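Review box. Two proteins, two foldings.
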Amino acid sequence: MKQSSYTLGDIAEALGAELKGDPGCVISGLATLQAAGPGQLSFLANPSYVRYLSNSHASAVILSPSMAEHTQTNVLLLDNPYLGYARLSHWFDPSPVAMPGIHPSAVIDPTAEVPDSVSVGPQAVIEAGACLGDRVVVGAGCVIGARSRIGGDSTLRPRVTLAHDVVLGERCHILSGAVIGSDGFGFANDKGVWHRIAQIGRVILGDDVEVGANTTIDRGALDDTVIGNGVKLDNLIQIAHNVTIGDHSAMAAFVGIAGSTKVGSHCVFGGASGVAGHLTISDQVHLTGMTLVTGDIREPGVYSSGTSADKNRQWRKNAVRFRQLDAMARKLKELEKKLEG
């Protein structure tokens, strides 16, 4: 059982924070600056929320040293307040803690390796030759395909599907509805008729990977689809066959990566971004929301495409101008030649 409350002194020591205030102050929950009340702790990571700080009723606030002068309450000083909040959030997480054991309705092949420390929920299926590490949690209705391997301390929320020969590293967290190892979209055309190509590669996830709800990661056609260590994927993302994503990259919802594209490490892709197939994306590339990438990106940096919302009348005028850009560019070149002559 988790504790229901902690003293500020204990919290400060655990986070390595400098405490200014009462170390005996008891904290029993977390809340936003606007909603927090006595006994709750909040945080200030975005300077735009500083306007809420002076009127907050939180018993304590995690913030950076530069913001300490804006409040008279107890403060925990950290250079990265959001990281402090992230670590502390697990202390107050109300999610049920899975206990070791196998539900009677689960179906487990006799050749599967399932340690005693594993938790297997109702109606889960673990197929032949699968191998689970210590303290793995398999939620209700999950399917673990033949010969798949799951590293220790990984969690599969209810209704996750791992196809055959999928490899998960340690401490992975897979949310409900995710499908890992589905067949890639591979078909050969013969006189207008499509013929399915068997997808014989695998999907390999590194350690500490998180996969959001209803995200799909396709298995490789020949080589493997590989997701690096520490990668974070939001809900409703499509990763096609033979894609490689480098360590510690993060992608927001609705991102789509077409087949055989290689994404570097420490990349951040905003929501609804799309990347065409067979491309190479450098390390440390940031795509803003709804960016469409159709060519290689060889240098780190922030990239954008598309247009922001505008009043319909103005947007339509701009759309007409966009279609005229080529003709305008030709006329500009002609004028430049005349001026040079």
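Next protein.
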Amino acid sequence: MKEIMERLYSGQDLTEKEMTQVAESMFTGNLSDSQIGAFLGCLKQKGVTAVEMAAFAQVLQKAALQIQNIPHGTMDNCGTGGDYCNSFNISTTTAFVLAGGGIFMAKHGNRSISSRSGSADVLEVLGVQLNSSVDRISYFLNEVGIAFLFAPAMHPSMRYVSKVRKELATPTILNLIGPLTNPIVLENQLMGTFAGHLLRETAETLGRIGRKRAIVVHGAHGMDEANLSGETHYALFDNGVTEHSFGPEEIGLPYYPLEAIVGGDAQKNAQILLSVLNNEPSPYLDTVLLNAGLGFYTKGAVSCINEGIDKARQVIAYGSAMDKLNQLLRQQEVA
């Protein structure tokens, strides 16, 4: 550990082997709080690489609870959070639209970190059970097409770093790789990040951990979601990484100021989610159409984002997205 810390102090990148060694020690309780804090702080100061993020994420994923009998083609659209924009639960709402469009969705998420309502908070209000067993998660994925994976329950090894993370009170590599640690090995992923300067590195990381095709999004005003208040930037991993950007006018949706999609507490955000799934016109609906369009494009279900938006519009209009929420609630009673 001493040699690794010296390398970080001098600004050198770590190898995959070194990063794996530190992560394995960290997530088995073999590092002290001071060692963990020093490592996370120095790594943040140096800046992380795709090699470092991938190695760290893979160790945490392997230490997670294992879920069997997963449908082929299962996808996630979890974001990092941490943008402090206080938006409604965009990715959670979007997950039901993608499931309604035929994509198996393993929605990885947590309680609120930087907003008033995280994915777990809003789903709990809606009646979705958070601490489902791995067998029930598999059942929901196969029978309904969507399941929620509550990150604290999926990753018991995170208990070794929770105290230090709170005390550091600043985003670290653990915030960047949260969406990369879904216990399910995914072929496709739509991921939002607050770290716009790491778009390419994050997309490369997704490739390193086995994604066949993935998109990493950084929205206007630093959001970890695509939005309609300005230019959205994204990196596409598909046999290499390419970077792109677009504004509202290019994808046929109106411009809205960021204030138009501000959410509230879990109760308020649950109402917003239901309004979107009920196809009630609003900036919330259009924002979900955009993010679902990106999701369908990520999956390869459509040839461009605009086609994805059209597909999302049809899924919501036909009631298929709302059906997924209702099916999940019903299956909880019989599983």
